[in-house]
Design a protein that fits this description.
By secondary structure, this protein is an alpha/beta fold. The protein has 16 helices and 17 strands. The longest helix has 18 residues, at 30-47.
Length: 377
Amino acid sequence: MAGLYVHIPFCQRKCPYCDFYSLAGAEQLIPEYVYSLVGHLRQWALCENLDEPFASVFFGGGTPSLLEAEQVGTVLEEASRLFGLRPEAEITIEANPGTLSLEKLRGYRSAGINRLSLGVQSFHKENLSFLERIHGPEEIAQSVFWARQAGFDNLGLDLMFGLPGQTPGKFLEDMQQAVALAPRHLSLYGLTVEEGTPFACRQEDGQPLAAGEEEWRAMFLGADEFLCQRGFRHYEISNYASPGWECRHNLAYWRRHPYLGIGAGAHSFLARGFGERWAAPNDLKVFFSRLEKGENPADFVEDFSREQAMGETLYLGLRTAPGVSEADFQNRFGSGVAAAFPEALRFLGKKVYRHQGCWRMTLEGWSIYDHLIQEFF
């Protein structure tokens, strides 16, 4: 089943750790940009026929909650007209607590949004200040209260850990406050310093920007124990959900299901052959210009060989608790996992195992995932 990703590259202020394409202080371009999103959908409709209506839509960014409800509705109406939306489609918008109001949230619900993902990051003022977020702790609870009033039952919160000076105890306090707000979903992201970001520049100047390896590992493992004891399911390395409330859109990514991306900086994955990847330029002027010329602004990036597709199937699938089905892998590629990657499995040892027909990674393996998964490439 296909999904639709809508990239909104606008922020009130750019976070120093973020390497996604976004612009600060350019909100005056949003009306033109929404018009261009409709154009991008129409360009995709000219060249790509999907077998089924969209099963999910995800507005990511940037800060998608800078859009008005009517603008969100415009994009959803065109997506439905051109490709169709399943009646039970999961439709998510990422939101910053500093950009919301009860009226705006009610408008989003009326426009068709049924899942809200709040970028909380932390409940501690010093952490929010370090991350240069535009909201404070008090705005988090206010946003959740408004979301409930607006009718959002499917609510997720994002937290960050591994910050400099952050202890496992302090991160536990963040999780306790998050759980007290009764979300259906929690995403816990370890801070990474990405090339080209302000944080990378600071790190090059000698400023410590991440917790030590042992502290990071303690926070990761402690989160699993704390949240699983409270009924959450650790269904992907960075994600927890109450049973049945997993993010279906992201699960489709990890299962290599096709999706279209619209907007500057958006990526697409098409199911032709062993898979094709496309990407729209990280440049708003180029994006606008190509649409004005009647072109699909997305560029072809790569098509996957059988070997590349096998590696990516494991790279993505082993991130999830269900893992990779041996039968599905055999049917897709004509080879079992062990036959395709004998040396990688020997290297990983007991950190990867086969259970009830699926290959899975242990929690300990997840804690050093980026290191281990390189063996499959």
